[in-house]
Amino acid sequence: MTENTSNTAPTTNAALYDAARAVIPGGVNSPVRAFGSVGGSPVSMVKAAGPYLTDAEGREYVDLVCSWGPMLLGHNHPAVVDAVHRAVDAGLSFGTSTPDELRLAELIASKVPVDRVRMVSTGTEATMTAIRLARGASGRNLVVKFAGCYHGHSDGLLAAAGSGVATQSLPGSAGVTEAQAAETLVLPYNDRSALEETFAARGQEIAAVITEAAPCNMGVVTPEEGFNQFLRDLTERHGALLIWDEVLTGFRASAAGYWGLSGKVEGWTPDLWTFGKVIGGGMPTAAVAGRAEVMDLLAPLGPVYQAGTLSGNPVAMAAGLATLQNATEEVYGTLSRRSQQLEELLVGALTEAGVDHSIQRAGTLFSVAFGTSAGGVHNYADAQAQDTFRYAPFFHAMLEHGVYLPPSVFEAWFVSSAHDDAAMERIAAALPYAARVAAVATA
Ligand SMILES: *Cc1c(COP(=O)(O)O)cnc(C)c1O
Fold first, then answer.
1. Which reaction does it catalyse (predicted)?
2. Is 6 in a helix, a strand, or coil?
3. pTM of the predicted protein model
4. Minimal CA–CA distance to 363: which of 278, 429, 422?
5. Which of 234, 162, 163 is nearest to 202 (CA)?
6. Which of 155, 217, 311 to mutate to test the pocket of ligand 1 (most atoms within 8 A of CB)?
7. H or E segment to which residue 369 belongs
8. Residue 180: what pLDDT?
9. Of the chain's two ends, which shows fewer C-beta atoms within 10 Å, N or C?
10. What is the whole-number distance in angstroms between the Cα of residue 10 and the centre of ligand 1?
């Protein structure tokens, strides 16, 4: 038990972090929030509106994290807040089917070519279920993933590569068994010959390839022209499933997610999809979706078990529905324009300060990498080889000037349709100083 400190409740960011560390591991409920890669004390937020966050000390920031993606329409969008209020008044959870989960599933199926949608609460559950389904459908055990792609924190998906083309894997976390890691083959992203070789050697054992539609968790890495279609063809040829993880990019990279820029244009569809982030509009909701023949293997119809007490929670469904219903063409136009504008401001400031960099883009998402202008970033090795030391001082300079960036260089920058001229001006005012700080940073 910890002492009750309510009489002297901390109010500064630093004091809140100190108090949190006494009762929450590392003071945070998700590791990247701890500022581990940028140093300093994390900021505790108490309020959000439109493009802004307000911390416990009353300081306001332009938010370029947007809760890691969900806040497509900005914070506290009136239509979303109204829908949530109405849902709360009607009851927090019923433990039964509800009309809104049906409407959200139908809405998702109207935007991307999926026959069935099963709601879960987190992206981690969605990818975990997709893998189980792929194994159940194929009767095979192995899963291919790419180094640097993040698919949530289930055991098998935390396997990371050894160096080079790994056909054996090491556990990426304590507590993941070697047996689990051995069933995950980790390959370099964008590397067709590594895939060809792996499938030539073990194709009969491979249940699925899981990929981020466009990687956004090692910074953004743009899939090379035709790479996703190559994945589709290769898996089909070998009787493996393609699991298309759009937890981050879904209904954000474009109106039809990254698939809208890739499979839709090239004329192919994956077998299974995972969604999260935007489809919950800020509430805990995610989904696994796909072709009927595969999805109908799920319980209660089929032998692949999956369940969730709060799956399709009515308040979360209301937030997700209101968000997707309001995600109009105009919203995507604004997202696209603001993210282009942000990139131009960033590139202008870095160029002016003489900071070598490259920008990687995936639809309305992008990230910056330092010292990479010669070759760009095509995989995890490239991402790791950049001048990461320039990011921490850059991040803190922006924070000081009221701009909240992702606290790691290995993350995408997120805008919302609420990012207006005033918000952009604040970013524009902060960038030149931050760029100069990044220029003089040393390893
Ligand atoms: C965020 C994310 C996940 C995990 O979702 P959680 O809701 O955090 O469990 C899975 N895949 C991708 C691509 C993600 O960005």
1. (S)-4-amino-5-oxopentanoate = 5-aminolevulinate
2. helix
3. 0.95
4. 278
5. 234
6. 217
7. strand 365-370
8. 86
9. N
10. 31
The three-point CA angle 102-214-390 to 5° equals 125
248 Cα distance to chain centroid: 3
Q: What is the mean pLDDT of residues 165-180?
A: 68
**Structure-block tokens of residue 385:** 């080889």
Asked if residue 118 lies in contact with residue 295, where contact means CB atoms within 8 angstroms, the answer is yes
The DSSP output letter for 149 is: -
Mean pLDDT score, 46-50: 98
Residue 160 pLDDT more than 70?
no
- Which residue among 151, 211, 252, 279 has the greatest number of ligand 1 atoms within 8 angstroms of its CB, and so is best to mutate? 151
Q: How is the chain split into domains, by residue range?
A: 13-76+328-439, 78-325
CATH topology of domain 78-325: Aspartate Aminotransferase; domain 2 (3.40.640)
Q: Among residues 391, 388, 386, which one has the least CA distance to residue 374? A: 386
**Tokens coding 243:** 């699991």
Q: Which amino acid is at 365?
A: L
Give domain 13-76+328-439's CATH architecture. Alpha-Beta Complex (3.90)
Element (H, E) at 185: strand 184-187
Ligand 1 neighbours, Cβ below 6 Å, are 122-124, 127, 150-152, 212, 217, 245, 247-248, 276, 286
Q: Which two tokens stand for residue 345?
A: 């401001």
